[in-house]
Amino acid sequence: MAGIKDVARAAGVSVSTVSYVLSGKRAISEKTSSRVMDAVRDLKYTPDASAQKMRGRRNQILAVSEPIRGDINEAKYNAYFLHTAWQAKNAGYDVLLLTGEDAVDDIRRVTRSNMVDGVVLLDIVEDDDRVVQADTYGKPCVAIGYPAHHGDCACVDVDFDAAATMAVDYLYERGHRTVALLRDNERDYARRSGYVVTLRRRMLEHAEELGMLVVESGRNEVGIFDAAAFVRNLMDMDSRPTAIINQADATILNMVVQELADCGMNIPFDISVLSVGTFFENDLVARPVTEIPLMPRLLCSKAVGLLVSAVEDGFDIADASEFVLPRIREHGSVRVVNSTDTAGLDISPPLPCLVGPDGRDRVAGSGMTFSPCR
Q: What are the HTH lacI-type domain coordinates in residue numbering (predicted)?
């Protein structure tokens, strides 16, 4: 079995440098740290793990991996971290927040040096390397989210397929046949943020199954979303949507609500609003809306409970997965319409569509995309 001297020799550094990289007690250059971690991986070195296990010691610390990005949704980020920390505290554990971009190396550093007893992964994407590499940490690991491949990592999440179906059915049963989808941050789609992609995909699929027309907003880029153009395009359509399904954050939704008000449109009498996969409990929303929300408190409770059972009772949680059924919070922002008079507007046949240079269907003259088009 490789020892710390072997790692130092392979990395071309001193034993003390290896120790500092693994413990984080001193700042070591990124280049040197990378060489050390490469050697640790190649040699499968696990510092003092056997000794700690023989002594039966725990550090009562859980690592929480939640990398900080420039476009993070602060309300969601804070909610998941704080609820994780709160649940850990109630179980007798402190938390160590890992925010670096080299997330896998950060997790290996704190697990292989036995700084922590287990790992919680937040902000999961569809192809999440942190989850795929869970079997290399040597500690139990739970993800709040369900990626495409989860290996030896337990997963806890809302059933977002069910949430998307619930959202579309909720509007359909209330007579809505043409709806607008207010997109989430484009970077979340681009980086394949798990629940964001799942919600949009399934909502569009189920709407097509029911024969509903879904008009998508333009790209929601950070800091430059044109809410006035979004509302203006809705107003200019011959078959005006009777409802908005919102995936965007509170800032964007507030802008849209204000633009609707400026155009003399009342929620829900002129247009309904249903928000899906959002967390407005602690956000300042201009007008409370009916919501199928994220559930950080419940998910964090389940995740920490699962992790503690592995740490303290030795349960094997590698194949454990749990889906929580979605819930709807009524705030009176969706009204019932009938099939002949939707918000005072006669339903007309679907608008003609064009195929843009990117291959996506576009509503003629609106600058917006929609499905179905065929």
A: 2-56
Q: pLDDT digits over 180-216, tens only?
A: 999 887 677 666 666 788 888 899 999 999 999 998 8
CB 313 within 8 A of CB 147: no
Query: Which structure tokens are listed for 98?
Result: 């890992």
CA distance 277 to 198: 10
Beta-strand pair 361-363/353-355? antiparallel
Fold of 160-293+327-371: Rossmann fold (3.40.50)
118-121 sheet: strands from edge to edge? 94-98, 61-65, 118-121, 141-144, 154-158, 321-324
How many CB atoms neighbour CB 29 within 10 A? 10
What's the fold here for domain 1-45? 434 Repressor (Amino-terminal Domain) (1.10.260)
Distance of CA 167 to the CA centre of its chain: 18
Burial (CB < 10 A; 0-12, 13-18, 19+), residue 280, is buried
DSSP 47-101: TTHHHHHHHT----EEEEE----TT--HHHHHHHHHHHHHHHHHTT-EEEEE--S
- Six token digits for residue 184: 């989430």
The bridge status of strand 141-144 relative to strand 272-278 is unpaired
Mean pLDDT for 156-160 is 92
The pLDDT tens digits of the residues spanning 301-321 come to 999 999 999 898 888 888 788
